[in-house]
Amino acid sequence: MNSRDQALLDEVEALLAMTSHQGHPLRSALERLYHHHLEQRERLERLVSIADGFQQTAQQDLHATRHQLQRQLKRQRKLSRIADRYQDLLHERNQTLEDVSTRDPLTGLANRRHLTKHLDCMAADKRQAGPLSLAMVDIDHFKRINDRHGHAAGDRALVALAQTLKSALRANDLCGRWGGEEFLLVLPDTGLDQAEALVRRLGERLRGLDLRLGAERLVLTASIGIAEHHPGEDYRDTIYRADQALLDAKREGRDRWCLAE
Amino acid sequence: MRQDLNLPGSASTPAIQSDWQAGRLSLQGDSYPENSYELFSRVIDWVEAFLERESRPLELSLELVYLNTSSVKAMMDIFDLLEDAHREDRKVGVVWHYDPRNERIAELAEEFREDCTFSFVIRPLEVSA
């Protein structure tokens, strides 16, 4: 209310209080109008104050809700972050399990399960068009190494052979431990001639290994059977023929390779 | 006093023991239960009841390894209860034990610890050689 409004009200109040106006026909009507105005004014002020109160509560609610939302968002982000990291952990665990189930723990090479699976995949892959050779490698007189120098020496011989195999092979070749002292080489896009050249190189590297057991230098040799996969042939039969060729190499005096029929 | 929890745990659920008298709650193992709500609501109820009825300290001893998402959420809910209690000057604390061969678990425990103002210790387990 401004001062002009207040001055008017003061003037009306003063006029009503003057005794000289008692009995004037307009006085009673003015008095009623004056009181009516005062009531209206009070009501208006109350209304404004209630509306302000509501607005303030709404503001507070809004603020609290915003705050809660921020908290929830932060919490949600934390939850997702931790859950994601647990998922990574699980993934790593699976990877480790897969490694354990497909690798030979001593040599780090593929194990028999992995080799078989690899061959099955190759058999299922119809695009596999080129020649394929398999070579079965067996350390000569492995039992003698074990008996004479102990199992730790035998393990060293196996690891040394595994490293030599790995270093002699090409990127797409796969070698693994088939069992005991037997290793299988899977040589894709390789005919018998090429396989033979590769195996010759391998034999030379093997003989050149400097494997010392105490004062004694152990000369490592291997017998190897090579078979080329025939179109339509079951891989198990190719492995069988490589195995037979390996036996031939053993029979012929070891430290050599033989080709399968 | 309230009925204590003593759950043996399985491949997918943690072993859980509570000791109202000692003010201690322990969880060990992996947690990816089929119904994590059912499992953890019992734990959360126990913690809420303890904090409400007792004024003694409460300690959580954890040796958790793998947690699925709903278990992560349940643990965050439990830590929130502890945080609220701590803000009311209650003595509460967490000790999270982990296998030192698996540092990743310690890192995850650290993620949980973020924003917690109560005592939250991450400690390697003693492993016999």
TrEMBL record, chain A:
GO process terms (BP): cell adhesion involved in single-species biofilm formation; negative regulation of bacterial-type flagellum-dependent cell motility
Catalytic activity annotation: 2 GTP = 3',3'-c-di-GMP + 2 diphosphate
Entry's Gene Ontology cellular component terms: plasma membrane
Cofactors that this protein relies on: Mg(2+)
Domain of life the protein comes from: Bacteria
Domain GGDEF span(s) in chain numbering: 130-261
NCBIfam families (alphabetical): diguan_SiaD, GGDEF
Name used for this protein in its record: diguanylate cyclase
UniProtKB/TrEMBL annotation, chain B:
Pfam families: SiaC (PF09345)
Domain SiaC family regulatory phosphoprotein intervals: 9-123
Domain of life: Bacteria
Name used for this protein in its record: SiaC family regulatory phosphoprotein domain-containing protein
Species annotation: Halomonas cerina
Upper classification of the organism: Bacteria, Pseudomonadati, Pseudomonadota, Gammaproteobacteria, Oceanospirillales
